[in-house]
UniProtKB/TrEMBL annotation:
NCBIfam families given in the database record: PRK09257.1
Protein name per its UniProtKB record: Aspartate aminotransferase
Gene Ontology terms, MF aspect: L-aspartate:2-oxoglutarate aminotransferase activity; pyridoxal phosphate binding
Lineage, highest ranks first: Eukaryota, Fungi, Dikarya, Ascomycota, Pezizomycotina
Stored InterPro entries: Aminotransferase_I/II_large, Asp_trans, NHTrfase_class1_PyrdxlP-BS, PyrdxlP-dep_Trfase, PyrdxlP-dep_Trfase_major, PyrdxlP-dep_Trfase_small
Family classification: Belongs to the class-I pyridoxal-phosphate-dependent aminotransferase family.
CDD domains, alphabetized: AAT_like
Keywords on record: Aminotransferase, Pyridoxal phosphate, Transferase
């Protein structure tokens, strides 16, 4: 019998990863890395949406500091949390979103699960919703939106449908286009709604517009999935910022999903403190839905991280600490509002070409400047001012020492282009 010889090249199997494509780094994280590597003393980071104090430094909220001290004095625990997360945190988080009264009314019909911050809540929501419907419903996402929305839902196999949210010419919400999209959407579709402080445009529907949006969603049987990553950042008041979610659940009696993040409003960025809850139509549905969430969570992360949830829970379940947190939200949202105004004033002072009124009409963490990618790049290369390529700026990156420089740089760049 003829023997077969195996050569060295044949013996080496092709890499298991041979078909893996190269995916460019996430734009906003790459921008942060570029900023960190920049040695220019005048550099300004308006990229990533992270709060900075008036000295440009990360801010540990006094309420968080106090909760942390209390936790440490009680001793360290490193035990696992239950699969659904820390019960006191889950309940308090849902109470923050719905308000104590509505929470009390709805409690038995809520399915609640702690999540890996807001992103994890969206992902878990996608997993749950995917398990409920076949064929998969479409997911409607506003355009523009937070870049990760499409990535999260398309990675789960959903077809994402972008719809026009923002009118570039008028620099306002395009409510007509929004409502027309909802009217034409197939019943059962999922719609991603920024609960407040729309990222990146800073343009939210008014209360009247929310009511119109809600009415059509109810009529068309569309599923509202709220992304509540910035509660308290618009107005300083969680209650005001939660209007849309509460309206949909209470007034319209609709089923809805809410994806909460405590990254921004408690400054717990790295602790990954989030919560997903569904307001369902009955106690039985809530119980079943929560059991599915528990199974999904088990297979994804087994159980969520404890430390940040303990801090958030300590704040939310103590009257004193909760009041401190409300004051911290006022500090952050107030400083952002005053920097928004200061940038506007300085742009006018330097005669920067363009209409800047939209900037002061916008709210939340971001300003949407409407600059061309050429100008955005020039601001980075020549003036060391960093912002997202769509000219979204994180207003929290501005402070009294750099706002004049940023406005002058924008004015000069626009003159030169
Ligand atoms: C609109 C929006 N949703 C969700 C998130 C999720 O953030 P995290 O996963 O850090 O809580 C962000 C973060 O930037 C965001 O801007």
């Amino acid at each position: 019998m003829a023997t077969q010889t195996i050569t060295a090249t044949e013996a080496k199997p092709a890499s298991f990863f041979a078909t893996a494509p190269y995916i460019p780094p996430d734009a906003i994280f790459a921008l942060t890395a570029e900023y960190n590597a920049d040695s220019c003393p005048q550099k300004v980071n308006l990229g990533q949406g992270t709060y900075r104090d008036e000295n440009g430094q990360p801010w540990v909220l006094p309420s968080v500091q106090k909760a942390r001290d209390t936790l440490l004095s009680q001793g360290l625990y490193h035990e696992y949390l239950p699969i659904l997360g820390l019960e006191s945190f889950r309940n308090e988080a849902a109470k923050v979103a719905l308000g104590a009264e509505l929470y009390g009314k709805q409690r038995a019909k809520l399915a609640i699960c702690q999540s890996l911050s807001g992103t994890g809540a969206l992902h878990l929501a996608g997993l749950l919703l995917r398990s409920c419907r076949s064929p998969l419903p479409r997911v409607y996402v506003p355009s523009p939106t937070w870049s990760n929305h499409i990535q999260v839902f398309s990675s789960l196999g959903f077809q994402c449908e972008s719809f026009k949210y923002y009118d570039e010419q008028k620099k306002t919400l395009d409510i007509e286009s929004y409502l027309a999209t909802l009217r034409a959407a197939e019943p059962g579709s999922i719609v991603i709604l920024h609960a407040c402080a729309h990222n990146p445009t800073g343009c939210d529907p008014s209360r009247e517009q929310w009511k119109q949006i809600g009415a059509i969603m109810k009529e068309r049987s569309l599923f509202p999935l709220f992304d509540a990553a910035y509660l308290g950042f618009n107005s300083g008041s969680v209650d005001d910022d939660a209007f849309a979610m509460r309206y949909v659940v209470d007034e319209l009696q609709m089923e809805a999903g809410v994806c909460m993040s405590f990254a921004k409003n408690m400054g717990l960025y790295g602790e990954r403190v989030g919560c997903l809850f569904f307001a369902t139509g009955s106690e039985k549905t809530a119980k079943n839905t929560q059991s599915v969430l528990e199974m999904l969570q088990r297979s994804e992360v087994s159980n969520p991280p404890a430390y940040g949830a303990r801090i958030a829970s300590a704040i939310l379940s103590s009257d004193d600490l909760r009041d401190m947190w409300y004051a911290d939200l006022t500090t952050m949202s107030g400083r952002i509002r005053s920097m928004r105004r200061a940038l506007y004033d300085a742009l006018i002072k330097y005669g920067a070409h363009g209409s800047w009124e939209p900037l002061i009409r916008q709210s939340g963490m971001f300003g949407f400047l409407g600059l061309s990618p050429y100008v955005v790049n020039k601001l980075k290369e020549k003036y060391h001012v960093y912002m997202a390529s769509n000219s979204r700026i994180s207003i929290a990156g501005l402070n009294p020492s750099n706002v004049d420089y940023v406005a002058r740089s924008i004015a000069e760049c626009l003159d030169e282009s």
